[in-house]
Structure formats: C-alpha cells, structure tokens
Amino acid sequence: MRRIIVQGSSRNNGNTNKIVQILQKYLECDLIDLSECDIRQYDYENRNKNDDFLTTIKKIVEYDLIIFATPVYWYSMSGTLKTFFDRITDCLKIDKETGRKLRGKNMAAISCGSDSHENEGFFIPFEKSAEYLGMNYFGHIHTWIEEKEPSDSTLDLIKDFSKNLSKCK
Ligand SMILES: Cc1cc2nc3c(=O)[nH]c(=O)nc-3n(C[C@H](O)[C@H](O)[C@H](O)COP(=O)(O)O)c2cc1C
C-alpha cells in the first residue's frame, strides 16, 4: 500500500504541516507540498499546460491512498487545494490516461482549523470528487490548533485515524 499526503497549505511549515508530521509518525506516507509547486488556475484553453500540474498529478496517481491535508480558510479548503482539484479537470479532458489511473484508488482528507468545530459540509467536495473520479472515499478528520501545538484530543484523533488508514487495502 503506497500512501501520499497532498498538503495544501499556504505555508509549508505551518499548522497543517504539524498535523501532517504527526500523521507521518504513525503511518508511512510520502508527502507532496503544493505550496512548492507552480500550479496555476484552471484554464479552459489550457494555456497553463506547462506548469507543474501534470508532473505532480502523474506522481500522485501512482499511490494507492491519497490523503489531502488542508487548512480551513474561510470555512472551506484552501485556495491552493481547490485550484489543484479544479485542475484535475485537465485529466478528464486532455490527459485522460492519468485521470483513469485514479479509478479504484482511495482518498482521505484532513482539515486543520483554529476552531474545534467542523463546519457542516466541509468534506462534501472531497466525498463527491472521489465519487465522480471513481475513487473510494476512506474518510476524514477535522483537527485544530488553537495555540501553538495540537491538543491531546487532536493527537488522539490523528492516532485513531492513522489506525483506520492502515487498514485501507
Ligand atoms: C485566510 C485564512 C482564513 C481562515 N479561516 C478560518 C476559518 O474559517 N475557520 C477556522 O477555524 N480557522 C480559520 N483560519 C485559521 C486557520 O485555519 C488555522 O490557523 C490553521 O491551523 C492554519 O493552518 P496553516 O498554518 O497550515 O495555514 C483561517 C486562517 C487564514 C489565514
């Protein structure tokens, strides 16, 4: 089982990364940090086809479990991650072979906010996108960091989630 975390924060060593690092302590996962990739907004004319999107998605589709990790920005996933999802459209139109490789793969998601409250519907775009792409949605957790470090309940959540993810076949 090959696993990869796709980190969608606007900073590479912020709170989302703290959560990602804890998950990586429990579960062997590679990491792609989207903030280090040059991935432009979706374009109907594909004028951005030479940016980093295709090389990035081609690496990701080789994994069996893809875990999206995003901060909560204005009650939603980050713009960085949303742009990445928008660009998956390229795999349905111009690089269908890569898009097809997502079928049957597993998706999971982790959010990181400053508030313990999970906004209703936050994970619907993940669940629906997995369904549309023919992927198996393996679940999600909402984590939060109020001060500098995650609370014990967040740590427990990540530990339990990693146990569940390790059962993903
Ligand atoms: C632009 C922006 C919008 C935010 N909106 C929310 C929000 O709607 N709900 C929330 O709980 N926290 C919100 N926060 C706080 C972040 O979710 C929180 O600090 C998170 O842990 C930051 O992760 P990062 O360091 O990876 O960016 C927001 C932060 C920023 C910068």
UniProtKB/TrEMBL annotation:
Q: Which SUPFAM superfamilies match?
A: Flavoproteins
Q: Which Pfam families match?
A: FMN_red (PF03358)
Q: Where is the Flavodoxin-like domain?
A: 5-166
Q: Which UniProt keywords apply?
A: Flavoprotein, FMN
This protein's source sits in the domain of life called Bacteria
Q: What residue ranges are annotated as transmembrane?
A: none
Supply the name of the protein: Flavodoxin family protein
Name the species this protein comes from.
Gaetbulibacter aquiaggeris
